[in-house]
Amino acid sequence: MRSPETETIRRPSLQALLSKEVREILSGRALWTMLLLLCPLVGYSFFQAVALYGEASAAARDQPVLASSLSPLDGILVPTFGAFYVAVTLLFPFVAIRALAREKETGTLKLLVQLPYQIRTLIVGKLAAIGVAWLIGIFPVVTALFLWSSFGGHLNPLETANLILGHLLYGFLIGAIALFAAAISDNSATAAIVTLAFTIGSWVLDFALAGQAGALGWISRLSLTQALHTFEQGLLSAALVFGICAAIAGFATLAGVWLHPGVSLRDKVVRAFIYAVVTAGLLAVVTQLRTSTDVAEDQRNSFPAADQKALAALNKPLIITVHLAPEDPRYVDLQRNVLSKLERAVPNVTIRLATAGQSVVGSASEVSYGEIEYSYGGRTVKSRSTSHREALPLVYGLAGVAIPAPQVGQDYPGYPLVADGWIALPWFFVALPLLITGAWWLSRRVPRIPAQFVKYGGQT
Amino acid sequence: MSDNASSCEHEAAVPLQVAGITKWYGKERALTDVSFDMRRGEILGVIGPNGSGKTTLLETVAGLLPADAGCILWQLSPLPRERRRNVIFYLPDGLRPWDDQHVIHVLEFFASAFGKGFADLGKATRSVGLEQVLVKRICTLSKGYARRLMLALALLTPHPVVLMDEPFDGFDIRQTREVMALMHDVAARGRMFTLAIHQLSDAERVCDRFILLAEGRICGIGTLNDLRALTGQPTAGLEDLFLALT
After folding, report:
1. Is residue A422 part of a domain?
2. Is A17–B113 a contact, with Cβ atoms under 8 angstroms apart?
3. What pLDDT score was predicted for residue A401?
């Protein structure tokens, strides 16, 4: 016998779940506190960025070469979003943790898991609410962008959208880690420690393992902060986007594994291990994707258009052997100016680090140290330059291709602007905090009883 | 009467059977071979002192805790843990769900989750007397109103079996009577309640049958008269019977 009533609970309302989750986030103080702290953080960063950009612009007023190096992406967007990044790293976990930890602490989770929602639906609902919290959190940054536009500042839609996408993915990643931490922890404090271990641990990875090769280099690339650098450089990379999405899905799935009621700890550990392996496999696959788009207006991640076209036509494998230690500044230059661009432009390129695992001190005495070997079609040529102006002619020579003539009129003009950013200070330090406090007060107001509810006699 | 007909009658009258549930917390045994059944329209009381395993039993039956042995049968078929939430709903003790939210919002959420409309919501609200506190935050409710809210949530669920942990804790005498009457009314329409109660006087007034639990073992099970017959004390109250059997 199946109770006819149980049939009605098969398609529960998703809107009701999402409303509940959003209300839960809004009713906590963590979100509003984060918003209030974001105001001075973002405001001061923006004010400083406008001031410094103005100083640089004043110097570049009569020098077009200097002006072409003035990009609002580097000068305004990245520093302003930098404050948001700090808040999302250090404060947003407390907002996201609330989405689950509060229910665990109060025992409400025992009710929630009995409702006719799948566990994955509950997790998606919580992630969606975290997304709403992120959208509310980015409001101060958006107002900074409007202010910049009102000053007459230039914003390239593509590179701005790319940067916002990077921060959105980063926010969701932090949210997913926070959910996972809340799922495996008994209380908010432990969940916060676990989440901060991931975020602050990333900073430690950045400092301790930067420039390392081999396994240490691979570990350093797991740093969460590294995820944003690519977006900040105006590069939209499929490997990075899908990699972050896979990590978000992985942490969310692991959180779900821990929420299943009535499952023994041993079974949860086994399931979590299986999902972690699957996620790692997925990450390994998607990070092999080489598709990327240079959305930076100054095309800083690409060679000039004529070179890009000529390099794309090279159909044999190009092998580059670098005799430089990874922490050598010349290697960093080479990587930025030549290697990363060649990887994007040439269809088949392999880069080998001959000194992998060695330090500058250990390798510098070798005669070949500093050499870069380019091999193409059975021929090899060596260079010590880290500039594309010397490297590309060598590659063209190996391939027997004529050096393409530069296309005129494609130079990035730069967007110098001397603006007075003082108006940002009263906005971010007075008006916006007052607005946020008002919104907080409104969110605490007594709810209206639905008319239908009164009609059916639910309230006298 | 054929075997089939007899089986169907049993299935209809005793839809839920708990068979040999054993539960360990590490090296400590919390429940030992607990077996009982639930009959349509009855209120079953699980009686026992603190630490006797009442809450563990309810949470294990509801599928919120894994059992180390035993099974649950629903209409003579095994009811796996994943499907128990289609049949059984468990209300924990002392819970103030989503305590920063308003009463009306939590009620609406529950009603929407179970596909109930405003008519059902209004009925549940009226039947437990929550009309006056709908716009209050749950954290500001008195203990009695928090209990009423939980009861309203239970009424909004469509599950045939409802397990409640200490449902009368926090109610005054009048409220306890009202809630007991409400439970009898709901049970009369076919739903089954299992209540973990430590107040024996409350249990004696509301329950049709009793499970006496001590140190995770069942010491006695049946109606008051069954227990009296078991102990040979024809006029004893539940308290005396409990002391005699544990």
Report:
1. no
2. yes
3. 87
- pLDDT band at B111, cuts 50/70/90? very high
My answer on whether A277 and A331 are in the same domain is: no
Which pLDDT band holds residue B9 (cuts at 50, 70, 90)?
low
A109–chain B nearest CA distance, Å = 9
Residue of chain A whose Cα is closest to the Cα of B160: A3
pLDDT tens-digit readout, A441-458? 998 888 888 877 777 665
Same domain, A166 and A275: yes
B9: containing domain = 1-87+191-246
Answer whether residue A414 is part of any domain.
no
**Is B118's CB within 8 Å of A103's CB?**
no
**Which own/partner contact pairs does A419-424 have at CB distance under 8 Å and 24+ positions apart?**
A419/A50, A419/A53, A419/A54, A419/A151, A419/A152, A419/A153, A420/A54, A420/A151, A421/A46, A421/A47, A421/A50, A421/A51, A421/A54, A421/A147, A421/A151, A422/A47, A423/A147, A424/A43, A424/A46, A424/A47, A424/A50, A424/A144, A424/A147
DSSP track, A158-195: HHHHHHHHHHHHHHHHHHHHHHHHHHHSSSHHHHHHHH
Looking at the predicted structure, is the pLDDT value of residue A240 above 70? yes
Q: Answer whether residue A33 is part of any domain.
A: yes
**Residue B95 in contact with partner chain A when CB distance is under 8 A:** yes
CB contact under 8 A, B63 and A261: yes
Residue B148 lies in a domain: no
Residue A121 confidence (pLDDT): 95
CA quadruple A344, A346, A349, A352: dihedral, nearest 10:
-60
Predicted confidence at residue A8, as pLDDT, reads 46
How would residue A209 be classed by pLDDT, with cut points 50, 70 and 90? low
Nearest CA to CA, how far is B188 from chain A (Å)?
16
pLDDT cut 90: percent of chain A above it: 60
Q: Smallest Cβ distance to A16: which of B113, B126, B135?
A: B113
Query: CATH number of the domain that B10 lies in?
Result: 3.40.50.300
Residues A236, A172: one domain?
A: yes
The reply to whether A389 and A274 lie within a common domain is no
Residues 29-68 of B with CB under 8 A from A: 59, 62-66
Q: A69 with A187, same domain?
A: yes
Mean pLDDT of chain B: 90
Which CATH number characterizes residue A393's domain?
A: 3.40.30
Question: What is chain B's percent helix, strand, coil content, to nearest 5?
Answer: 45, 25, 30
Number of domains in chain B: 1
E strand or H helix at B37? strand B28-38
Is there a single domain that holds both residue A137 and residue A237? yes
Per the domain annotation, does B17 fall within a domain?
yes
pTM: 0.88
Residue A354 is part of which domain span?
Answer: 305-398
Answer whether residue A85 is part of any domain. yes
For chains A and B, what is the number of CB pairs under 8 angstroms? 142
Please answer yes or no on whether A116 and B59 come within 8 Å at the CB atom.
no
| Total domains in the fold of chain A | 2
Sequence-distant (≥ 6) Cβ neighbours of residue B97 within 8 angstroms: A106, A108, A111, B106, B138, B149, B150, B153
Q: Please report the pLDDT score of residue A450 as a whole number.
A: 80
| Interface predicted TM-score of the whole assembly (ipTM), two decimals | 0.90
Same domain, A92 and A205: yes
Among chain A residues, the shortest Cα distance to B122 is held by: A458
pLDDT in tens, B215-240: 999 999 999 999 999 888 888 888 88
Q: Poorest-confidence range of A59-73, B129-143, B149-163?
A: A59-73
CB-based contact B95 A106, cutoff 8 Å:
yes
- Contact at CB, B160 and A3, closer than 8 angstroms: yes
